[in-house]
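Researcher: Re-running this chain for the archive, since the previous output was lost when a drive failed. Same request as before.
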Amino acid sequence: MSAGLAGRANAGTILLVYGDSLSAAYGIAQKQGWVTLLEQRLRQKHLDYTVANASISGETSSGGASRIAATLAQHRPRIAILALGSNDGLRGLPVAQMRDNLAVIIRAAQKAGSRVLLVGMKMPPNYGPRYTREFEQAFAALAKQHKTAFVPFLLEGIAGKRDNFLDDNLHPTAQVQPVIMENVWKGLAPMLK
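Model: Regenerated structure tokens:
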């Protein structure tokens, strides 16, 4: 979570980032991650939002579903950016299970009065054409079903280029975090009007 945010649920309007290592700045300095860059953008635009980053490295949609109620109660966000599912895919978990878990999170956030920006993910082709297609389509279907704002692919313009990733070939480098932030910003900006 952002430094100093605990116990400050009324400090401006809360924007919650609810994701995994891709949103938790895994392997790079926190200040270089896309969530911190998003905070800076909001300040530059004089938008009164406090960013609460409740992202956890290794988090699956199941883990996210299990802790969403407590997270919403703690932060009471006006907007929730939901960026989970990558770890479900990497583990080859059933797409239907991920979809159901993400739906639980979306419904909980909407019921709590948050507007949701769902951020999609894609799997590399080695997971097979059927799985990769179903995985990618699950996000678009959820966004449509629950009428959320939608970013089709968090790593648009980054994936498939080896130099954009750390040695694990999973986590983006500090250099491409601004691209990730811009991908999210495209979906988020219309919600901030």
